[in-house]
Write a structure and sequence with these properties.
The complex is a heterodimer of chains A (434) and B (128). Chain A is built from 11 helices and 21 strands. Chain A has 434 residues and is α/β, with parallel strands linked by helices. In chain A, the strands form 5 sheets. In chain A, strands 4-3-5-6-7-8-9-13-12-11-10 form an 11-stranded mixed β-sheet. With 128 residues, chain B is an alpha+beta fold. Chain B contains 4 helices and 6 strands; from the N terminus they run E-H-E-E-H-E-H-E-E-H. A 6-stranded antiparallel β-sheet of chain B has the order 2-3-1-4-6-5. Chain B is globular. Classes of the chains: A alpha/beta (434), B alpha+beta (128). At the A-B interface, helix 11 and strand 18 of A face strand 1 and strand 3 of B. Bound molecules: zinc ion.
């Protein structure tokens, strides 16, 4: 299958390193000049942009964190003037406030290019009809794939998420050849297709699925149920969105577009870079992005980079599926959820005094994530009549939905009933086996 | 006459109710009247007991979520229509009933009714 940008995708390591070095020097200089947070950290390390000569100096640079996006909310990390920012996207923060990312016109192009490379590498192009069933809006999923699909000249069906019956009918009627959504939604669609017995009416060839962890087992199931080849795509709003990396036709790890995003693997404890091929925390430096560049951004995803040549001919390193996190972030139905967000909401209902004890229970039933929160009843929450308690419970549910962006079931449980170990309640029970 | 009722949170799970009832029996607290309001997940156990203050302290100590509520406790003539008459009297006076439950007094075998009203003061004048 073809390349979207053969020259860049098949660059030799030497060429790539030279290219990365040049872009890194440029990026560090402009971040130092324009981003206070970065400048302060550089100054603390007594580093000047002139000290950075190429990617060999990357480990000298300070890290950046998700917390920075909150501390400098909304525009404090932007390195381009607002007049050049043409798009905003957002994602969950670790607390109630969302984090935002700004894109220049050029950034949108880099992003669409990343997605276009992935779509091309799995065999899509002009003449294909791509149904995008990721959510559109502030979430990067919908518009990210949309940009890539338009770029390769495919016909785009901007379905967005939800309404499964209509999704399937559209796929059939409009003869969609590719589907983009979360893998758990693809599983669900696959099951519905089987239940309705309409697989032979589908024109689907491939699916590109991402935004949440999934297994080889799920891949097999999706492929069988929809009669397609299923590919993984990776990305995060802080870096740009889906299309930071993606699988090629060989389904053997996701090529990271290293001419835009330099990946590093570090030891999350010592923070030392690890040799290529080792497992550790994935760190990205965006060397071409203008709007909100990230220098050594700690993704908290644990994975491994494979530097060996790929059969497809692309030289860019492949990242294996992330299979864990170095923080407590959960991905539920493709949405990032932090226990601290839930804590903040509950605290708000308790007059900010103490956080009631709570426990998050995540499971996967019929390929859909279930999300339950047990909250221990407290003096403050209790009333003599059912109406008041139910009203409170509904208010908590509504607030959680607005903060998290997804619905959770709230259960009021007996005080002291949530199991504690060493006096601390276990906050998260994730029963999903992925 | 006015009485203090204890309201206890009960999770709708096997064993939760008996935990509370056992606590009373261990401490020799006599339950005069009891009712439960519930949905599929939790309920409110409402009780009139022999020694309200002691029972309240014990429940709190045992880690239950408990509240005291002022309710009206009336003895009724044990004859048809007695309750209807009472309810009429309240509604004529514009006093709303949030909930009520009845019990038979052990001492005299008379019928009693416990009422939680939205306007306690108005009711107080009514049943002076
Ligand atoms: Zn490849």
């Amino acid at each position: 299958m073809g390349y979207w940008d053969e020259k860049k995708e098949t660059m030799s390591r030497e060429e790539l390193t030279a290219y990365q070095s040049e872009k890194l020097v440029w990026q560090v200089k402009r971040c130092y000049e324009n981003v206070e947070c970065f400048r302060t950290r550089m100054d603390e390390l007594k580093l000047k942009p002139e000290d950075i000569h190429g990617i060999e100096d990357l480990p000298k640079l300070p890290f950046s964190y998700k917390k920075d996006l909150r501390d400098y909310y909304p525009y404090g990390l932007f390195a381009a003037p607002m007049k050049d920012i043409v798009r905003i996207h957002a994602s969950s923060g670790t607390t109630g406030k969302r984090i935002v990312a700004g894109y220049t016109r050029n950034d949108l192009d880099i992003w669409a290019d990343g997605a276009a490379r992935v779509l091309t590498s799995v065999g899509l192009g002009e003449g294909d009809i791509i149904q995008i069933s990721y959510g559109y809006g502030l979430f990067t999923g919908g518009l990210g794939l949309h940009g890539g699909a338009e770029k390769i000249g495919a016909t785009v069906i901007p379905m967005s998420s939800g309404n499964t019956a209509l999704q399937i009918q559209t796929m059939i009627d409009l003869k969609a050849t590719a589907l983009c959504c979360t893998p758990s939604y693809a599983m669900y669609l696959g099951e519905e297709v089987q239940r309705l017995g309409v697989q032979d009416q589908l024109s689907l060839k491939v699916g590109i699925f991402g935004a949440e962890p999934w297994s080889e087992e799920m891949r097999k199931n999706i492929e069988a149920a929809l009669g397609i080849k299923a590919y993984d795509i990776y990305g995060l709003t802080e870096i740009i969105g889906p299309g930071v990396s993606g699988e090629c036709e060989y389904q053997a790890g996701m090529h990271v577009w290293e001419d835009n995003f330099i990946p590093e693997i570090i030891d999350p404890d010592t923070l030392e870079p690890l040799p290529v091929g080792s497992e550790g925390e994935l760190v990205f430096t965006t060397i071409t992005k203008e709007g909100m560049p990230m220098i050594r951004y700690r993704t908290r995803d644990i994975c491994r980079l494979d530097p060996t040549p790929c059969k497809c001919g692309r030289t860019h390193y492949r990242m294996m599926k992330p299979h864990g996190r170095t923080d407590d972030m959960l991905i539920i139905r493709g949405v990032n959820v932090f226990p601290s967000q839930i804590e903040e909401v509950l605290l708000g209902f308790n007059d900010g005094e103490i956080t009631p004890n709570y426990q998050i229970i995540v499971d996967r039933v019929n390929h859909t994530d279930t999300f339950d929160i047990n909250v221990e009843m407290s003096e403050k929450f209790f009333a003599d009549d059912m109406k008041s308690i139910q009203k409170l419970e509904n208010a908590i549910v509504a607030k959680l939905r607005s903060v998290l962006g997804i619905g959770a079931k709230v259960h009021l449980v007996s005080p002291q009933s949530i199991t504690r170990s060493e006096g601390k309640a276990k906050r998260v029970i994730d029963k999903r086996t992925i | 006459m006015f009485a203090t009722q204890l309201s206890v949170f009960v999770e709708n799970k096997t064993g939760r109710l008996s935990e509370i009832l056992n606590t009373f029996s261990e401490h020799h607290i006599d339950i005069r009247a009891l009712s439960i309001a519930e949905n599929s997940e939790f309920g409110i156990l409402r009780l009139i007991v022999s020694e309200t203050e002691r029972a309240y302290d014990i429940l709190k100590r045992e880690g239950f979520i408990v509240k005291k509520t002022e309710v009206l406790s009336l003895q009724m003539e044990d004859k048809p229509g007695a309750l209807a008459q009472l309810v009429d009297k309240l509604s004529d006076a514009g006093v709303g009933i949030e909930y009520l439950y009845a019990f038979v007094s052990r001492e005299d075998g008379g019928a009693n009714v416990v009422l939680r009203l939205d306007d306690t003061e108005a009711a107080q004048n009514l049943f002076k």
